[in-house]
Amino acid sequence: MLFYRAAVDLSRPTLKYVAGIVRRHRRAIRSRWRLLNPGQQALLALVHLRKGETFVEAAAGFGVSVATA
Fold first, then answer.
1. How far, in Å, CA of 27 to CA of 40, rounded?
2. Contact, 7 vs 65, CB < 8 A?
3. Sign of the CA dihedral 60, 56, 68, 27?
């Protein structure tokens, strides 16, 4: 179980897999730095999908703006 500001029933391998996808995508598009690292960005996306939270709620949980989310 992973925690961001509340419990999310996700496995660590799932988070690592999605973080790898984010990392490869960033590399492919030659993205500059981001406020959230690939692991945090993956967790934000998984929280949105798993719990059905809006981007406003998820962004607030990560302490970032909605544009960043």
1. 16
2. no
3. positive
Rounded Cα distance between 56 and 36, Å, is 16
Report phi then psi at 64, rounded to 5: -125, 170
Q: How far is CA 8 from the centre of its chain?
A: 12
Distance CA 52, CA 6 (A): 13
Quick: pLDDT tens for 12-68: 999 999 999 999 999 999 988 888 899 999 988 888 888 888 888 888 888 888 887
Q: By three-state DSSP, how is residue 69 classified? A: coil
Distance CA 60, CA 64 (A): 6
Show me where the domains of the chain are located.
34-68
- How far, in Å, CA of 1 to CA of 23, rounded? 22
